[in-house]
Amino acid sequence: MKLASQPLVAALYLVPLPIGNREDITLRALRVLRDADIIACEDTRTTGQLLAGYGITPQKMMSLHDHNEEERAAGIIEMIQEGKSIALCSDAGTPGISDPGFRVVRAACNAGVTIIPLPGANAALTALIASGVETDAFYFAGFPPHKKGRMTFVKRVVERDCTTILYESPHRITKLIDELAEIAGTKRNAVIARELTKSYEEFLRGTLGELQSVLKTRPPLKGEIVVILQGIQAYHQSEQTEGDFE
Ligand code: SAM
């Protein structure tokens, strides 16, 4: 199937990029990235290299990251009002999800400019659907705070009825599993999903106690990590049976 050729409209296009495997991008995303007047992205070099791999030479790129998003938002809205199409993306995955995007989108809402979201790769949902933990209701908690408020955050996660999805760095993953076990006890189901869509993709599934044991016997985990924690309601239901993972 060839990329379509219909022109883009003046709008803010939200464009997800792969989270590892370069094949995980839609034809529509490629067309928008090829044809957008401007691509706003975190690191123009990183995104430029990714696009080169698809044979795309962007018309124009500008950097948009956590530290300049607020000040860049007004300029982006003005360009759309002047008739430009802007593709907003982050280094990887879906913009606005633990990544810049939200502030520009809110400014676009307030200014009444058109926002066109494209569906695509996201680490949280990719981990959830293969976790084996209940998917009927879930909460995305993002990254736990490093220091201040961390235990309050962990307590809230543990007390939540539904499944929780967290992002965590490999340097703090053992600490996080220990903290979750300290509050939830060792019997709650959890999953560590690592390096999704990449060659070392791995799922560690078990109770928090089992994950603690596994982490003790292995070299420190590397790469990018999503943690899925079973909600308290499903945990209490599975207590009456024999647990969920064999
Ligand atoms: N916007 C991205 C998304 O839609 O998933 C998330 C960006 S956030 C800055 C980066 C975090 O997402 C990583 O630290 C990790 O927790 C998670 N992540 C991203 N890619 C991943 C992958 N391939 N495997 C596992 N986790 C990943």
Task: Walk me through the structure.
The chain has 9 helices and 10 strands. Helix 3 (69-81) crosses helix 4 and helix 6 packs across helix 7 (173-184). Strands 3-2-4-1-5 form a 5-stranded parallel beta sheet, sandwiched between helices. Strands 6-7-10-8-9 form a 5-stranded mixed beta sheet, sandwiched between helices. The mean pLDDT is 96. The chain folds into 2 domains: 12-117, Tetrapyrrole methylase, N-terminal domain (Cobalt-precorrin-4 Transmethylase, domain 1), CATH 3.40.1010; 123-237, 2-Layer Sandwich (Methyltransferase, Cobalt-precorrin-4 Transmethylase, Domain 2), CATH 3.30.950.10. Helices cover 37% and strands 18% of the residues. The protein is an alpha/beta fold. The longest helix is centred in the first third of the chain and has 13 residues, at 69-81. Residues 19-20, 90, 92-94, 97-99, 122-124, 167, 169, 193-198, 224-226 line the site of S-adenosylmethionine (SAM).
List keywords for this structure.
alpha/beta; binds S-adenosylmethionine; 5-stranded parallel sheet; 10 strands; Methyltransferase, Cobalt-precorrin-4 Transmethylase, Domain 2; 246 residues; Cobalt-precorrin-4 Transmethylase, domain 1; single chain; 2 domains; 5-stranded mixed sheet
- Determine the strand fraction and express it as a percent band: 15-25%
**Element-by-element helix/strand order:** EHEHEHEHEHEHEHEEHEH
**Total beta strand runs:** 10
Total helical segments: 9
Q: Main sheet: which strands, in order across?
A: 3-2-4-1-5
The CATH architecture name of the largest domain reads 2-Layer Sandwich
User: What's the number of structural domains?
Assistant: 2
The CATH class name of the largest domain reads: Alpha Beta
What is the radius of gyration computed over CA atoms, rounded to a whole number of angstroms? 20 Å
Largest sheet entry: 5 strands, parallel
- Bound ligands, named by name, code or SMILES: S-adenosylmethionine
Helix content: 25-40%
Question: Which whole number gives the mean pLDDT?
Answer: 96
CATH topology of the largest domain: Methyltransferase, Cobalt-precorrin-4 Transmethylase, Domain 2
Shape: elongated
Decide which structural class fits the backbone.
alpha/beta
Q: What's the CATH H-level homologous superfamily of the largest domain? A: Tetrapyrrole methylase, C-terminal domain
**Low-confidence segments:** none
Query: What is the CA–CA distance across the termini?
Result: 43 Å
